[in-house]
Design a protein that fits this description.
Blueprint (H helix, E strand, L loop, with lengths): L2 H11 L3 E5 L8 E4 L2 E5 L4 H17 L6 H13 L2 H9 L4 H8 L3 H15 L2 E4 L2 E4 L5 E4 L1
Helix pairs in contact: 1-2, 2-3
């Protein structure tokens, strides 16, 4: 199942409709309102998954406060690339280009995901028996 299919399945299971619509402002990428996700039909394929996950993140984190964008981003990043999957990629020496292609995301969004995990787990953390480090670069070692 592709990442897009996974996100669409999540939406279906949570009774969230996904609508591709035209937005006059081309910088307006997506919107979540009352179990409806609206995605700009002009979105490039490599941006679609992150935009959809972000808007689904609003559904999951809707609390009506100023931290909503950060929470939606965090939820989206974990849905697109869980830390466990990132560890697996590193252990299997999967190339960065292959990861972004498999997930169908941009390199910019991959960097945002890495920055998110770095802010959460740096300088190092233990996850599922692996020590992950973010400084000076991302590394994984079995403990």
């Amino acid at each position: 199942m592709t990442k897009k299919e996974e996100l669409e399945q999540f939406a279906y299971e949570n009774e969230i409709s996904i609508n591709e619509v035209y937005f006059q402002n081309e910088n307006f990428e997506g919107l979540y309102i009352d179990n409806n996700v609206f995605i700009n039909e002009e979105i490039k394929p490599y941006k679609y998954n992150v935009i959809l996950a972000h808007e689904l993140g609003h559904h999951e984190t809707l609390k009506g406060n100023a931290l909503q964008e950060m929470r939606a981003n965090g939820w989206a990043y974990k849905k697109i690339l869980p830390i466990e999957k990132l560890i697996e990629y590193k252990l299997c020496n999967v190339e960065y280009e292959d990861i972004i292609e498999e997930l169908c995301i941009s390199s910019e969004d991959f960097c945002k995901i890495m920055d998110y995990y770095k802010s959460k787990y740096a300088p190092h953390s233990i996850i599922n028996g692996y020590k992950i480090r973010f400084d000076p670069s991302f590394s994984v070692e079995c403990i």
